User: Which sequence fits this backbone?
């Protein structure tokens, strides 16, 4: 997938999330289904994820190459990344469950700030995606806690799916059938 298409995909997935969020009451920000993250926690998680990636992309390219190495395989496409991520989530249910219990629970007072932060981090990533050379997108790798080392192109594509994944979770968790 070309970097312009990836930037557009990031924008599309974040717009779908923001569209859903604007139609929700403030009540669900701090209240979630039993054993599930609240809306606030879902957003906090996405902000943390974007911020870590943006920070990594701020390092000089030689540092990333020195610290994590380079890719020795073909870059995977979007569909392959999505499929592999879903498999990893299933394979590592216990690890994911343990990670999920430790996330900070933002209050309603933090909602506006957190949503602004999400929007800023999303725009930053779109900008950085367009600025990184194709060579660096396909050769430099960054570690993902569940997926292992991924090329920068792959991890940015994964980020688009990650946003979609959490949007679907929110929609499912707060549908009238499951929440009311």
Assistant:
């Amino acid at each position: 997938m070309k970097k312009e298409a990836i930037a557009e995909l990031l924008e599309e997935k974040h717009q779908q999330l923001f569209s859903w969020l604007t139609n929700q009451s403030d009540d669900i920000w701090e209240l979630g289904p039993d054993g599930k993250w609240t809306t606030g926690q879902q957003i906090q998680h996405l902000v943390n994820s974007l911020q870590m990636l943006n920070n990594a992309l701020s390092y000089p390219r030689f540092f990333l190459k020195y610290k994590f190495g380079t890719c020795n395989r073909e870059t995977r496409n979007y569909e392959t990344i999505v499929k592999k991520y879903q498999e990893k989530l299933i394979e590592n249910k216990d690890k994911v469950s343990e990670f999920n219990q430790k996330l900070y629970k933002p209050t309603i007072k933090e909602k506006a700030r957190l949503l602004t932060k999400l929007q800023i981090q999303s725009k930053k990533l779109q900008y950085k995606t367009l600025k990184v050379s194709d060579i660096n997108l396909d050769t430099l790798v960054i570690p993902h806690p569940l997926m292992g080392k991924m090329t920068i192109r792959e991890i940015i594509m994964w980020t688009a799916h990650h946003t979609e994944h959490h949007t679907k979770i929110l929609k499912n968790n707060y549908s009238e059938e499951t929440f009311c």
Q: What stands out?
A: The radius of gyration is 17 Å. Residues 152-173 form the longest helix (22 residues).
